[in-house]
Amino acid sequence: MLFRFQNMDIWQRGAAISAPIFQLADKLEQNHLYRFAEQLRAAILSVTNNIAEGSGSTSDAEFAQFLNIARRSVFEVANMLLMFHQFGICREEEVSAPLCELDQLSRMILAFRRTLKT
Question: Residue 32: which CATH number?
């Protein structure tokens, strides 16, 4: 592994969750919902991007700020999935597993953040 973040469970989990979210974004594009697809991809990438960027910080306090942003991005993705289901864009079975994974990732990020000296 080249970078610190690659060994972090929270980054690995976020990367794993990205695959089904990207598949859902592809489905949105097939239905001509390009803006939703773009926003969904950006939000899920923000999770791993902020974990990675924060891991390069020189202080725990700065890293904690990036983890806060990553966690908020998890909530953004969850909100979009819930709204897509509510508006009939996605079926429950398309969003239920990713929502459970996002909940677990949110908890993991928060637990990891608490280990930092801020």
Answer: 1.20.1440.60
Q: Quickly count helices (H) and strands (E) in the chain.
A: 4, 0
Burial class, 74, CB count within 10 angstroms (exposed 0-12 / middle 13-18 / buried 19+): buried
Contact 44, 22 (CB under 8 A): yes
CB crowding 3-20: b at 16 or more within 10 Å, else e: eebeebebbebbbebbee
CA-to-CA distance for 29 and 18, rounded, in angstroms?
A: 16
User: Which pTM does this prediction carry?
Assistant: 0.95
| Residue range of the domain that includes 90 | 4-115
Per-residue pLDDT, averaged over 2-22, amounts to 96
Please give the tally of structural domains in the chain: 1
